Amino acid sequence: MSSSDRSRAVDLTRTYEVRTYGCQMNVHDSERLSGLLEDAGYVRAPDGSDGDADVVVFNTCAVRENADNRLYGNLGRLAPMKTKRPGMQIAVGGCLAQKDRDTIVKRAPWVDVVFGTHNIGKLPVLLERARVQEEAQVEIAESLEAFPSTLPTRRESAYAAWVSISVGCNNTCTFCIVPALRGKEKDRRTGDILAEIEALVGEGVSEITLLGQNVNAYGSDIGDREAFSKLLRACGTIEGLERVRFTSPHPRDFTDDVIAAMAETPNVMPQLHMPMQSGSDTVLKAMRRSYRQERFLGIIDKVRASIPHAAITTDIIVGFPGETEEDFEQTLHAVREARFAQAFTFQYSKRPGTPAATMEGQVPKEVVQARYERLVALQEEISWDENKKQVGRTLELMVAEGEGRKDGATHRLSGRAPDNRLVHFTKPDADVRPGDVVTVEITYAAPHHLLAEGAVLDVRRTRAGDAWEKRNAAEAAKPAGVMLGLPKIGAPEPLPVAAGSGCGCD
Fold this sequence. Notes:
The chain is 36% helix and 18% strand. By secondary structure, the chain is of the alpha/beta class. The chain has a seven-stranded mixed beta sheet with strand order 19-20-17-16-15-18-21. It has a six-stranded parallel beta sheet with strand order 2-1-3-4-5-6, sandwiched between helices. A three-stranded parallel beta sheet has the order 7-10-11, with helices on both faces. The protein starts with a helix and ends in a 29-residue tail after the last helix.
């Protein structure tokens, strides 16, 4: 290749960066956006590029009141970079794009593409159309065009994968705008889900997380109330699949057959994340949640009776409109009774377009803050007490990548226990890779993590670790410049469902 040819090769290399905000569904959608762009000929920009890419995609969330301020602030910072960099393109997708549509281009006219939650597969062709026509492309589908699992995917992990089993939500919680943006629940065929999982296991994945806006409502499309428990049991028959998790279920649909499937299927992990949102029956009714405190705590009791070592986590909103001190005390009571391993606590934030945003009795900010601090203090105490019960236990950990920020300085590695607790452990002499499994004894507990300070008792090299090693070797071998033409025009060829890899307001 001549020097001029090499120069053209570098010039034709188009890089991309995807910035993700919001729930697990958005994270998984971003894996698909990355896969689509790479399938169209783009190359992922190095970590830390901070907007220094040819295409920057924002995958947005509309859950928080200030979600739009965050987006427009980031878009504003990119505007001068785009002026200095001819050919640079900016795309905005996700829930905020679905909600605001034309508003985005009016407020940020330097944006090239706006797409919604139902047509993420159109991103490459919309970018090409914007480039050719030299004008912004806004395309928002009102319903799902194709199930996302038919799209190419660039998974962030070689050993663990999301598998989407449904999209959308049929609930009408007054604080949540997600159903309006992602539509009614649509379930995938069980056979397609299992085929995808088997394909992922064939690639070296050993842990999958079943993903849905309301994951345990799976089967509502076909009228089978036990479809989710049957799916969990079917996952137990897949050879090589070591760990199965799911997020996030809704208490309304959490039935005894699901608890039995969790307890009786060895590779379904002893972990449950089930959003409570409030412990007050009055507030739960105002939230339009279909259960009450007694029902919620009853589920917790049943899970613990069947799975004694289960770690149960939750989401709680503080300061919902109309919440009184008595209501808040009921939430504290429920937290004391449930003894969650962790709680993701949120101060109520108005979601524009939701009934709660215009309700009377909006709680003053200073009251919300004070209650929030009381709740966090209580949960920290409980989390620490629950973690102390792990000291002395021998656990199998799946070695994780990037979860221990201080691992380099402390000469430790990090991994996840079966119940998903984070454990930092002493680095063994043997070579250990993310995806491998180690056996350790827990020696110390903190509120948010555990330590195994002694020698590692056993190291098991796995196919998942092999997959991580293979991926890293392939990434390292990639040339710095790739000879690329213009991105392919038109929607990408659909992949077989088994070839792909499968929100937070529950």
